[in-house]
Amino acid sequence: MGKPDEFKITFTSNKRVYYAGDMVTGNVVTKSRKKLKFRSIRMEFLGEAKVARANSKDWVTVQSYFDEKVEIYGKGANQDGSYPTIQAGDHVFPFHFEIPRRRLPSSFEGRFGCIRYSLKATMDRPWKSNYNAKNAITILEIVDINEPWALEPIVMEREMQTQFMCFNRGSIVAQMRTDRCGYCPGEAVALTGGFCNNTSSRTKPVTVSLYQKTIYTQGSKKNEINKCVKVSKDKRLQPHRPIQWENQMFSIPAIPPTINNSKFIKVSYLLEVSIQSSRGSLVLNLPITIGTVPFRPPILASAPPMMSPVYPLPSAPPADLAPPYEVNLPSYSESMATAQLGPPPAYAECVFGSARIWDENDAAGGAVMGDTSFTPMYAFVSHYEYRPSTAGTFTEEETITAEREPRLDAVDDGLSDSMDEESD
């Protein structure tokens, strides 16, 4: 008897993104040049949130959302009789699982934890090492940014007085307004406002940064990670020369949605508009929500709301819901059929890249075959059009993944009085 040359999990139509209530179907595929003898092929469908300690690869906190196991071929562990033998060649063993109709948090892969929905196939061989294959899917919580709370704009104004010794050297004033506070990746935040530099020195370029804040919870301990996702820069502020923005467009890359219904992992986003001068920094922090249902024109947005929990503003997240919390949610396809949602969106791979889904805990179960990397995919609007005819763009944009702390207050950044000479 031989061993499989290939042992992997595939999905019907290569589908990789699902919602609560959807059916996950696919096949376990084996290829071998010799006969294979084993007791069974077992499938496990697992949804869980896992958190690790800093500088550790061991999971110390686990929250299970569901764990389903089924034998898709062969005999169970307690069944008698001879074990099956399959001939050399290609063999396909179909499987299907229904995702529970619960309010499941969206898939997320982070530095110290993950919310992961994985499928594991095991070729069970008594008295010998098993063969395993593992794959993962993206499950998205329905976060509809067409709800009234997500359509409200964010308005903010700040003024910073600049001083040298005991003398007032003027002020810098910033006013900013967003078109709404909820966005889907691929869409753009329309920023409208103005800046006025009432000092004698020019500033650094006006900068808009998108930060992702992730809070990992382990008992009473919390580990907060701030990651700068994208930075866009505009012109410097010249002395006594105001600048006006009208629908300055800041596009949202393919990033995880806001997550506030996981007990151990929470994800939120902050849009930071900052101006640095030789005497400090003026910062406007605009909290936004990243959703999974794209913005719809008013004619579609007037459709009846979904029969699902209301998603409040990021400043008032719902209470943690420990599974099994059944709300009998409709699937995305069912909601679309009743005109509660628009057509399913397109999806794009997360800009943060892939994660390894085979860890040390899996290694004890035998050898793993095939690729074990996984890249989550998120709803993405490929050709977003902002309706007003006037829209501005930034002079410089960069999508980054470096972890960087957002500035929460105006602080003295230690810049010298003489700014580096750069062209406007």
From TrEMBL:
Residues 395-424 are annotated as: Disordered. One of its GO terms (biological process) is protein transport. Pfam families: Arrestin_C, Arrestin_N. GO terms for cellular component: cytoplasm. Residues 411-424 have a biased composition (Acidic residues). Transmembrane segments: none annotated. Signal peptide: none annotated. InterPro entries: Arrestin-like_C, Arrestin-like_N, Arrestin_C-like, Arrestin_domain-protein, Ig_E-set. Residues 401-410 have a biased composition (Basic and acidic residues). PANTHER family: ARRESTIN DOMAIN CONTAINING PROTEIN, FI21816P1. Belongs to the arrestin family. This is Uncharacterized protein. It comes from Paramuricea clavata.
